[in-house]
Amino acid sequence: MKLRNKTALVTGAGRGIGKSIAVALAREGASVVVAARTSSEVDSVARTIVAGGGKAISMTSDVSVESDVRNLVERAVREFGTVDILVNNAGIGSFANVANLATDDFDEMWKVNMRGVFLCTKAVLPCMTKQKSGDIINIASLAGRNAFVGGAGYAATKWALIGFSRCLMLEVREFNIRVITLCPGSVDTGFGRGSAKHSDAIPKAEDIAQVTIDTLLLPRNVMVSEVDIRPTNPSMK
After folding, report:
1. Is 235 domain-assigned?
2. Strand order from edge to edge, sheet including 226-229
3. Residues annotated as catalytic (active site), given as ranges
4. Model-level pTM greater than 0.85?
5. Three-state secondary-structure class, residue 4
6. What is the DSSP letter of 228?
7. Kind of pairing between the strands at 7-10 and 55-60
């Protein structure tokens, strides 16, 4: 229970990686604000945490809408006093060659994958800078380091997220705020291109959650700023 008395806000927490991270944070003693766009999903995750003896509240929120984000953070502070950990996990992917990628799909990825990160980060910084402590976990992707056919729109948002995170880290480290960027490759969640040929070989959502916890539990004077996560043996059957 090494995160006891900490408050964590997890976006995109209704399923997949976000859900696993929320549950893992609660298991370590954190009070968790479970946020996503689908109320039935976040309510279910919060109930699971509470049933396991943890503390959690759920809130329906669209991270690309500034008023939603403001309400989300205000409720977190009202319920738990502050926000110590922000996990920017909400993300969407539309995969198509540039010639075939719909403009609406391109715009929606930027709204969620980058604007959402910006809004959530900006909203929690007053709490973290005031208490001179905090952790911001940004879930990027190996797509933010590598090119592939059909990934131009999605990869561009993740390249941008890595650049954003690097700049943010330099801006806030004087307040003892750590910015940690996780870059998973394919994860067995069914997201986008994540349905890999050998699903037994690739990381599971629970594995990404474990890496998240491991980085958070490092001594406060240590920050691992970027972590690439890939299969040990992708050819394993």
Report:
1. no
2. 55-60, 31-36, 7-10, 85-88, 134-139, 177-184, 226-229
3. 154
4. yes
5. coil
6. E
7. unpaired
